[in-house]
Amino acid sequence: MTPAPRRTHQSAPPREEVLAAVMATVAERGLDGLTMAGLGREVGMSSGHLLYYFRTKDELLLRTLEWSENRLGAERRALLARPGSARRRLDAYIGLYLPAGHRDPHWTLWLEVWGRSQNADDDARARQAAIEGAWHRDLVALLAEGVSRGEFRPVDADRFAARLRALLDGFSVHVTVGIPGTGREQVLAQAAEFLDETLTPGPGPDATGVTTAS
């Protein structure tokens, strides 16, 4: 009699595969469609096995956000390293920052993690701050470069970056949730108008409210 084949242990899929599956689920069905059981079926793991690796759904969401941000970070660094004017690279930075459209999965995930951060532990909050900090530092450096070249009006790069990101965050929420009149193209136009008004060299108030001379 032919012996029955031995069962082999099925190893867990790479964590990146799990995180990619989370993003795909959010993109297709939204966060309401993301369950540990459903994700487990998608990647061939039990929900218990997933919890063994990620401990909680909050941790799974934060890990997925970090994974997505790492990919965006590489893209951001590449576009900021391109030759050309600081304004052109700033426009590209904003294009990358803003959601692709209604229910953008990355921003949908960001909004969920933000909402849960009220009860997050210190480690989770520090990891979220690290994501924010990377975007902020790159923006400050780009603004400072533009000012030093005379492409931008003299502004405090750190303060301007904080205000610009707050503006982009607000617009991004509107785009993601689908508020009428705030589609991606409309928001890009609004952001470009804001930069024209606040960074174009010449007399007038800068973003800190200080009048500068040409």
Task: Summarize, please.
Helices cover 67% and strands 2% of the residues.
Write up what this structure looks like:
With 214 residues, the protein is an all-alpha fold. Helices cover 67% and strands 2% of the residues. It has nine helices and two strands. The chain has helices spanning 15-29, 36-43, 47-54, 57-80, 86-97, 105-116, 122-148, 157-177, 184-199, and strands spanning 204-205, 211-212. Strands 1-2 form a two-stranded antiparallel sheet. It is elongated. The termini are far apart.
Question: Strands across the major sheet, in which order?
Answer: 1-2
What's the mean pLDDT score? 88
Number of strands: 2
Number of helices: 9
Structural class: mainly alpha
Which shape, going by the Cα principal axes? elongated
| Fraction of residues in β-strands | under 5%
What's the order of the H and E elements?
HHHHHHHHHEE
Gap between N and C termini: 94 Å
Low-confidence segments, given as residue ranges, are 1-10, 206-214
Helix fraction?
55-70%
Largest sheet features: 2 strands, antiparallel
Report the C-alpha radius of gyration, rounded. 22 Å
Itemize the secondary structure elements and their pairings.
Blueprint: H1 15-29, H2 36-43, H3 47-54, H4 57-80, H5 86-97, H6 105-116, H7 122-148, H8 157-177, H9 184-199, E1 204-205, E2 211-212
Antiparallel strand pairs: 1-2
Helix pairs in contact: 1-4, 1-6, 2-3, 4-5, 4-6, 4-7, 5-7, 7-8
What key attributes describe this structure?
214 residues, mainly alpha, two-stranded antiparallel sheet
